[in-house]
Design brief:
globular, single chain, 0% strand, mainly alpha
């Protein structure tokens, strides 16, 4: 069972993920605290952390219910909660972008037909490409979870099949960004497989010594994993390989690498009590994690507004304004839209 400390640290991990996204987009827009602090191209890493966290947590909920759950009865309630969690804010924010576009403040080009296709989750304009991908995997999770529950005790077989599927699917699919689950199915499945491994670990009776070793190992690996994520940012990767101007999308299509790294980070954060977990569990990262969805959907509105008047601000001032205003508007959105709908969804819980 994931306890309160783990929930805080995983919420904080969402905060870290959105900070990767915000840093990348701010830096690409020219908002820099100083030249060496450039995370351009690192935003997609945060998106993959989101993907793994989402599939992990939702699959873990199904596994916790076990064989006693009626999937037929649970499925409609599950979908309703996911709908309330994602769709109203998504549509509301999408309409704001469209109104801005109609009145000449274009961030992304899209007409009425594009708007409709976005609302129907047939495509995703700009940052909205992740929404159809997430929604499509929501339909996969109950099926995958049911299979994991059915074959739960066949531990070796589940591991062999899962690893084979992840590798074979990843090397056979064209790793490109589009608004459907196809290219990302193996990545999301990594999160579901991780939920199975974590659930199995929690039910395993291990010695105090083994628990101590796992904890200390995860402490070290979580630090290494986070360092690796930072070193994969093109600016810093260029320092390692001695190449200037590494393309910002250099690792963007390394889906398997980013999925595995994200899953290792999630696993080690849960099963450790070291510095990374402590940082992620603090109030700042928990706040940012709670408003991360609103921040992700709405931050380009803030970015575009500051860019329009960027000639009046130093890059350092623009950088600080971008983060402060994004978090401010995200908090308002969270309190007015996300939080009430989340509570409504919880009331419908089995």
């Amino acid at each position: 069972m994931i306890m309160n400390g783990e929930i805080k640290s995983l919420t904080g991990l969402r905060g870290l993920a959105i900070i990767f996204v915000l840093l990348s987009h701010a830096n690409k827009a020219g908002f820099l605290l100083f030249n060496e602090f450039d995370f351009s191209g690192g935003g997609r890493y945060g998106v993959f952390i989101f993907f793994i966290l989402s599939s992990f947590l939702l699959t873990k909920q199904f596994l916790a219910l076990g064989e006693g759950i009626s999937f037929k009865a649970y499925f409609p309630r599950y979908l309703m909660r996911r709908f309330l969690r994602i769709y109203p804010l998504f549509v509301s924010t999408l309409l704001v972008y469209y109104v801005f576009h109609v009145f000449g403040h274009t961030i992304w080009e899209f007409d009425e037909w594009d708007l409709l296709r976005n609302i129907l989750l047939l495509e995703g304009t700009g940052v909205f490409w992740v929404i159809p991908v997430e929604f499509q995997y929501y339909f996969c999770i109950p099926v995958i979870s049911a299979l994991l529950v059915k074959y739960y005790d066949n531990f070796v077989e589940v591991i062999v099949f899962s690893i084979a599927f992840i590798i074979l699917y990843s090397i056979s699919i064209d790793a490109k960004y589009q608004a459907n689950i196809g290219p990302f199915l193996a990545v999301f499945y990594i999160g579901s497989f991780l939920a199975y491994l974590q659930d199995s670990l929690e039910k395993l009776k291990i010695t105090e010594r083994a628990s101590w070793c796992l904890n200390k190992t995860c402490n070290v690996v979580s630090v290494i994993c986070l360092i690796v994520f930072v070193l994969l940012v093109p600016k810093y990767f260029g320092y390692i390989v001695g190449v200037d101007n590494v393309p910002v999308g250099y690792f963007h299509n390394s889906f398997l690498l980013l999925g595995v790294l994200s899953s290792i980070l999630v696993f080690t954060v849960i099963n450790s009590n070291g510095v990374i977990k402590a940082i992620l569990a603090n109030r700042f990262f928990n706040f940012v994690g709670k408003v991360s969805f609103s921040s992700y959907l709405g931050h380009y509105l803030v970015l575009a507004a500051i860019l329009k008047y960027s000639e009046f601000f130093l890059p350092e001032v623009a950088f600080v304004m971008f983060f402060l205003l994004t978090f401010l508007f995200s908090y308002v959105s969270f309190r007015l839209i996300e939080e009430p709908l989340y509570r409504l969804g919880r009331k419908k819980r089995v």
